[in-house]
Design brief:
Largest sheet: 8 strands, mixed
Strand order of the largest sheet: 1-2-4-3-5-16-6-15
Order of helices and strands: HHHEEEHEHHEEEEEHEEEHEEHEHEH
Bound molecules: zinc ion
Helix content: 25-40%
Structural class: alpha/beta
Number of helices: 11
Radius of gyration: 24 Å
Length: 389
């Protein structure tokens, strides 16, 4: 059996908790019912419960023995603004809200680990069960860190897990160092001079300026970023004008940037500012850039990566743990916790058949078959980190 027997025994409970959470999805920072449920369960297991960290975040503390060692285990609780297309019994009861990223499953796996660890208490030290709100682009992890969560509940190491549709059940994937991209959003406001559409000599056309800036931005990745560093600059918005015969006064460009280290994000920001003002200035207009980082690159600590991969190998065998998995261009705000404390983030297979539907799809569902495996990994991480000396 590749999972902890005692956890396998309460698989049915895990499934019913997961489906209950799935049926009642809540958006970021609105996870009232979900955090109530999490807090009630942690209480029932015998954890010390701390609430309202990062608005709806919850931390459960479980201490055994006198060792000063500590470990953090983290799950996310929020859902997405998606109308669920599934018709099964546990489909969303909340219109326009859906657990389409499997955070219902992550929360349940961590609750399963908490129940087991509180029951068996076979460790020496402190475990922090961290349930964060608002992972989906709203800054839940950053909010918890900013409120001092990792100072008040210090963790020698911290671990997170995300389901991976398409990866077979019983497999894990991870890599040391950068694993998921950091991301930024940007807006560029271009100011020209409005004029009659038939009299361009009387104006400064911000549409032309915007198209030149958009083209020149393509040189950042192709000419400024080192070819061995991966980055993306995408202009995804371009708004200007309302009439056929009016050259508008302004144009607004926006888009997203991805990169795997903070230096590359900073380089892109610098060059974007230079290009926007330089190109606009050369054409007689002006441009102002608003650049905001929305997620740091997710960087796995090499030692903790080996530690979590070894723990996963113990459960499913070495051949089922990919330690050199590909970079992921999507972002994950657990990066803010890893920026503060060493740790690692692993992907757990959600299935290559039934569980292969991608996250953020209205037909997605977390695969209940993997609940005991994920809970077992969380539990083993704590037991191994806090082993009796
Ligand atoms: Zn997501
Ligand atoms: Zn997610």
């Amino acid at each position: 059996m590749p999972i902890i027997d005692r956890i396998a025994q309460f698989h049915d409970d895990l499934t019913s908790w997961r489906r209950d959470i799935h049926a009642h999805p809540e958006l970021g920072f609105e996870e009232q019912r979900t955090s109530d449920l999490v807090a009630a369960k942690l209480n029932e297991f015998g954890c010390e419960v701390h609430r309202e960290i990062g608005k709806t975040g919850v931390v459960g503390r479980l201490r055994v023995g006198n060792s000063p060692r500590s470990v953090g285990l983290r799950a996310d609780m929020d859902a997405l603004p998606i109308q669920e297309a599934n018709t099964f019994e546990h489909r969303s009861r909340n219109d326009g809200r859906m657990h389409a990223c499997g955070h219902d499953g992550h929360t349940t796996m961590l609750l399963g680990a908490a129940r087991y660890l509180a029951e068996t208490r076979d460790f020496d030290g402190t475990i922090h069960f961290i349930f964060q709100p608002a992972e989906e682009g709203l800054g839940g992890a950053e909010a918890m860190v900013r409120e001092g969560m990792l100072d008040n509940f210090p963790c020698d190491a911290i671990f997170g897990m995300h389901n991976a549709p398409g990866l077979a059940v019983g497999k894990f994937a991870i890599r040391a160092g950068p694993m998921m991209a950091g991301s930024a959003f940007f807006d560029i406001a271009i100011v020209g001079r409005g004029a009659h559409g038939a009299r361009p000599e009387a104006g400064i056309d911000p549409v032309i300026v915007g198209t030149h800036i958009t083209a020149a931005l393509q040189t950042i990745v192709s000419r400024n970023v080192k070819p061995v560093d991966t980055a993306v600059v995408s202009v995804t918005r371009f708004h200007a004008g309302d009439a056929y015969n009016v050259i508008p006064e302004q144009a607004l460009i926006g888009g997203t940037v991805r990169a795997f280290d903070n230096e590359t994000l900073a380089l892109i920001q610098r060059n974007m500012g230079r290009i926007a003002s330089g190109v606009a200035g050369g054409l007689g207009a002006s441009a102002e850039v608003n650049f905001r980082v929305v997620a740091l690159p997710l960087i796995n600590d090499p030692t903790e990566t080996t530690f979590i991969a070894d723990a996963a190998s113990e459960l499913v065998g070495r051949d089922n743990v990919d330690r050199e998995s590909a970079l992921v261009m999507a972002s994950e705000d657990f990066s803010y916790m890893l920026n503060h404390s060493p740790g690692a983030y692993i992907r757990i297979g959600n299935g290559d058949q039934a569980g292969a539907r991608q996250v953020h799809n209205p037909g997605y569902d977390f695969n209940d078959a993997i609940l005991p495996l994920g809970a077992s990994l969380f539990a083993r991480l704590a037991e191994r980190k806090l082993a009796h000396s």
